[in-house]
Amino acid sequence: MEHWSTNAKTAATQAGPQPPSIAGRLVSDPKVVVAGGFILFLIVLAVFAPLIAPQDPLEQNLLTATLPPIGFADAQPGFLLGTDGLGRDVLSRVIFGSRVSLTVAFVAAGLACLIGSVLGLLAGYLGAFVDTVISRLVDVWMAFPPVLLSILLIAVIGTGLHSVIIAIVVIDWTRFCRVVRTETMNQAQMDYVTAARAIGFSRPAILFREILPNVVPVLIALLTLEMGIAVVVEAILSFVGLSVSSDTPTWGGMIAEGRQIVHEGWWVLAAPLAALFATVVAFNQLGDGLARSLDPVLRR
Amino acid sequence: MTAPKTMPRLETTPRLAINELSAISLRDGNRPILRRVSLDVGLGEVHGLVGESGAGKSTIAKAILGIIPSQVRIAGGQIGFEGRDLLTLSANALRAVLGRDIALVPQDPSTALNPSRRIEAQMTDGLRLKRGLSAKDARLRALALLEEVQIRDPDRVLASYPHQLSGGMRQRVLIAAAFGLEPKLVIADEPTTALDVTVQKQILRLIRALQERHGTSVLFVSHDLGVVAKICDRVTVLYMGKVVEQGATAEVLAAPRHAYTKALLAANPRYDRPDTGLEPTPPDVIAALRAEIAAFDAGAAEGRNG
Amino acid sequence: MLLAVIVNRAAMALVTLAGVAVIVFVLLRVVPGDPVAMMIGPGATAADIAALKARYGFDAPILTQFWIWSEGIVTGDFGTSITLHRHVTDVLASRLPATLELAVMALIVAVALGGSVAVVGTLLRRTPGEAVIDGLNSIMLAVPDFIWALALVLLFAVALPVLPLTGRIDPALAEGFTTRFYLAESILTDRFAVAGDILSHMIMPALALALPLAAVIVRLLKQSLKEAMLQDYVLLARIKGFGELRLVLQEALRNAIGPTLALTGVQFTFLIGGTVIVERIFAYPGIGNLAIDAIINRDFPLIQGLVLLFGLIFILINIGIDLSVAALNPRLRHA
Fold first, then answer.
1. pTM here?
2. Could you give the ipTM of this predicted complex?
């Protein structure tokens, strides 16, 4: 019954002035615009990398090894951000590196969100035994230091992109589970749910048609934050050498290499680090802005 | 209600001289909150400031203490204290005056004390800051003050946290702290409103006793004319920010000049005459008051334009 | 009352720890591929592999292995490290102090930095200055210790080469220590030059670990302080003539600190987790760095020992948080 949910939402937003459309609100928030714009830019880079990157990211040339970026002495045209120890163009590698990072961000965060949310919904709505089991599981899970756990998992299941994604999902689903569980428990007590039950709606129907839409704003904000976290975890795993094979350029791999030759070629570390920094901040600010724009209570 | 001794009109320089104080609310389109209020509090006098909620009594108190909220602006007048206009003092200068020469007895003893600090700390910090007492001396003074407000176990009270004391005890502590600084003026902001009726009388007597002993001037803010009648020498009646009646308490009570004052007196429940009902302010009195205020505002506007 | 809480938490902690132990144990042994073969390297004969398996007990069924290991735990024997050929307890004991000193230093830096900025932000409330602090802090909240560590490397090892990049102490100065708590010991024995050297090694990793925690502290503490400043008792203190800074520190702080303390404790566990990668970046010889090596080298006994150690630290910190929060609330102490 659509109008029950709408009633609840209207009641929640009664406090402030009538809000404009969701799209309108999102566009007017500078955080969302700038951060979202940057993410879109990254997506374009990743998708069209072969067309945008000036050089082949894998081409090694010892003659052009460790060249500084344009503007410094000994730089060569064609290598805007310099080259690494094997003569590979840093800029091209950074651009291609975005592919791995974004893939992991969207897939891993998405899966973690899905699994965590489902379990959280179940725990919050069904309560009792189901809730106890899931909550205990979350507690034990969260007793692990996440970085340690991710490294351990990769070492166990082997390296590769799929492993990284699995590791992130396995570690961070608890974050979604907790939040969704709390939110579900709050929503489940609200009048519109009681009313729906009185009318005779089945539990799954209530779960998905009534409660879920109210949980979605929190979820979207959390998902965006998680993407930022996933990018960092991937970079850390690449850094330690446990991500994709060393041929594929990744920001973490470049950072590891750059760390080794930091005195001879600081740009090899600086470029991917800057890209990572900007991406993480962008996802974070986007998540922040989304949370503010989508949640009527937070918008005070 | 027995009125205290009648005090003659002041001949000497008053302790506090509020002159033509006006204030407006910036949020309500410059709606006037105070309309050229003038009142004097003499040396050793207890002056009652009476009015219903929203009459502007708290605004006057806040103006004296320099804590008016940001949406209120002083539109004119002076607050004379010790030969200076408090409204023109810098923040630092005002801070020097506060605590040493002016003190406050707040309305709600349950929120006015810091729940995480012991009573001793809260009573002695002012003494140490403003009177330069050492920790030991400040503690002795605090003990003496607590005895003055008839707290029987001052050592235990000093060592306690606020939540361990009753409302009445907390108010006594606050009164002791306020008077203990030996200020020249104490503002008592509805000090009995949050207390049980049985405790109210004791507190009033206490305030009067302390005031007499230390020779402090008191500005007693209240909405209850009955309470004011018990301890105030003179009284100012406020309606919608305008002074409606002013004079010695006994005279005002016996022969109120303004209809509003009469209505206020009639509104007080007479426990000694249980058959008389409660009288709300008659509508024609309200109408007359509104007209009076409107005329005042119009006159003020003309004065501005003229 | 308090004792009951502690006992309860301790019991739950043991259960959680046991669960963690079981999970790790099983996880390691269901690894696809033969870990022992990986340990030994190519060119080994089947006999060599079998011998190694027997030596470390990997040929027994999992349940038996777990039983043997658990028995060992109870008597304090965590097994022998496969790669380092020493008792796991020895290895852990020799590396733990370094990480503890680093973590504590990071905590102190985070609290000092975060606390000061929160107080400044409160004093600047409703001015543009606060907006600046909020904006900067918002960005700082997004950046993990991993990125800070590398940024510091670029800044202080390359741009301004004033700090050493790796290790814990100049090898020439590493003599004459009875404990492994180098920093504490050097300060307590008045060897300040040595302490200075250790600090110069520690400051970058500690700062990298501290900054994310400081940002969290700023956000929460400033919020709590601002709320506390609106209370009546602060107003009364202001009327007594106290200045702004005094009001924040004397009246507001003790009422605002509760939630921040609890959150700091939780975040501190993340900080400990962060030592894994930060120590790696700075080649700092603590248990974090050890963990990565152990995992890459498939050193099972060492990995199990480390996981239990980390788990134990987490649990102790959580208990510590609960105790501090309870201790700070006068209502609970003097009910």
1. 0.83
2. 0.84
